[in-house]
């Protein structure tokens, strides 16, 4: 560790910044999990004692993060293709399994081609500046994920922002883009907004896009693999798969939970991305073990209707929302596994979450600036891995603590 004057000054600047985060109440400390990701996890305590928790925080929607078939293929690819490529794709980092996974994803969506990235954050960072120029316009939902916002910041297109899922505002921004003489117009939206469990109205977005001759980009991280009759995501949920032009998504949530992301769409776009997209060109290939877990997860999703994964996930979601709704809680969003239990006050949300943890239910309170002021909440995420008993255990804890803290009436029923 350096002891130079520059290091001392640097430390002081960093300390001041960290203190300001703490003073704002937004400092994040990480809990350490000692087990694989699952609905039941073992968590290291601050006092050094570990505890067993029922986990309602993961994006492990289908419970595939430690599925035996996912682990088996991951291990198999490690044996057959090694730990990694030590290379970017275009130098010597493309293996047959990368091409196979890209083809598998293309087939999954019925698109023309797919490109893999180290993460969906990278896919979002790399797409806008590659496909749009200063002659074009991007019209973005105000609640889009940080990685979409960063990706758009990198591109030279004219930028317009519409109010979250507000179709009148979207239309007004498209008119502005037309007035500004935009060549291509690209509407960018999350498929599902992760803080709210709200599903973007893609059917309406498609109608408006077609009226204004605009393209549609969807970040489907919180719907890939389970939303829609076959788990194809938000577009399939609304029956508009053939009207959406670009889908970016992650392999790090429902699709095995390891890491990785992708863009899927027309072959010309994928060709251009392979040649120009900076996070693809200048970053290492996906490790074979990660390719293996995603590919096995996609196979499991192909048979999700018969292997019970979808029934389990949606049954759990409906049960949890009903138990808490009947007890008098307000749950935001559409009928999505992201089920935000609204509490309003930031301190209340944090106290509530701490008490839940003491009851063995692992949930996190979210408050400003992650969500708007006065809209603090506990974001519960359901998974196919949860048992009915675990859902009822969580609901009982919510109700007891809700009564104790005066969030719901004393006579609320379970
Ligand atoms: N987009 C959305 C909507 C997300 O929720 C996330 C992850 O939290 C990402 C992109 C980034 O995905 P990844 O973890 O693959 O980088």
UniProtKB/TrEMBL annotation:
In terms of PROSITE patterns, this protein maps to:
AA_TRANSFER_CLASS_2
NAD is among the record's keywords: no
UniProt key word Hydrolase: no
* Sequence ranges assigned to domain Aminotransferase class I/classII large in this UniProt record: 52-397
Residue ranges that the Swiss-Prot or TrEMBL entry lists as coiled coil:
none
Instruction: Kindly state which keywords UniProt assigns to this record, in alphabetical order.
Output: Acyltransferase, Pyridoxal phosphate, Transferase
Query: Which cofactor is recorded for it?
Result: pyridoxal 5'-phosphate
The source's domain of life comes to Eukaryota
Q: What Pfam families does this protein map onto?
A: Aminotran_1_2
The UniProt entry, under SUPFAM superfamilies, shows: PLP-dependent transferases
Record-stated family: Belongs to the class-II pyridoxal-phosphate-dependent aminotransferase family.
| Protein name listed in UniProt | Aminotransferase class I/classII large domain-containing protein
* Species lineage: Eukaryota, Fungi, Fungi incertae sedis, Mucoromycota, Mortierellomycotina
């Amino acid at each position: 560790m350096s002891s130079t004057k520059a290091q001392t000054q640097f430390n002081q600047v960093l300390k001041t910044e960290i203190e300001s985060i703490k003073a704002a109440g937004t400092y994040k400390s990480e809990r350490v999990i000692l087990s694989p990701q699952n609905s039941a996890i073992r968590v290291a305590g601050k006092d050094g004692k570990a505890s067993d928790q029922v986990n309602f925080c993961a994006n492990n929607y289908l419970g595939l993060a430690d599925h035996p078939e996912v682990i088996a293929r991951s291990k198999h690819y490690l044996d057959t293709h090694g730990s990694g490529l030590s290379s970017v794709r275009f130098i010597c980092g493309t293996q047959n399994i990368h091409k196979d996974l890209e083809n598998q994803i293309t087939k999954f969506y019925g698109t023309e081609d797919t490109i893999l990235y180290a993460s969906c954050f990278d896919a979002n960072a790399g797409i806008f500046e590659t496909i749009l120029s200063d002659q074009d316009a991007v019209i973005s939902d105000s609640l889009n994920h940080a990685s979409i916002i960063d990706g758009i910041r990198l591109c030279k297109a004219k930028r317009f922002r519409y109010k979250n899922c507000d179709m009148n505002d979207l239309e007004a921004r498209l008119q502005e883009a037309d007035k500004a003489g935009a060549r291509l117009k690209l509407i960018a939206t999350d498929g599902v907004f992760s803080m709210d469990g709200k599903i973007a109205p893609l059917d309406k977005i498609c109608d408006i896009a077609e009226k204004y001759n605009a393209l549609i980009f969807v970040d489907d991280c919180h719907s890939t693999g389970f939303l829609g009759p076959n788990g194809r995501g938000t577009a399939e949920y609304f029956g508009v798969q053939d009207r959406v032009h670009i889908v970016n998504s992650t392999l790090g949530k429902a699709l095995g939970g390891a890491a990785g992301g992708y863009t899927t769409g027309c072959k010309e776009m994928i060709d251009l991305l392979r040649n120009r997209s900076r996070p693809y060109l200048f970053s290492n290939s996906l490790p074979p073990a990660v390719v293996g877990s995603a590919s096995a997860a996609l196979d499991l999703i192909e048979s999700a209707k018969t292997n019970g994964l979808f029934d389990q996930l949606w049954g759990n979601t409906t049960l949890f929302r009903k138990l808490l709704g009947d007890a008098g809680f307000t749950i935001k969003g559409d009928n999505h596994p992201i089920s935000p239990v609204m509490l309003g006050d930031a301190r209340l949300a944090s106290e509530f979450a701490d008490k839940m943890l003491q009851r063995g239910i692992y949930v996190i309170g979210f408050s400003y600036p992650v969500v708007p002021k006065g809209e603090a909440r506990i974001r519960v995420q359901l998974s196919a891995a949860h048992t009915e008993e675990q859902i009822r255990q969580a609901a009982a804890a919510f109700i007891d603590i809700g009564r104790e803290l005066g969030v719901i009436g004393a006579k609320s029923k379970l």
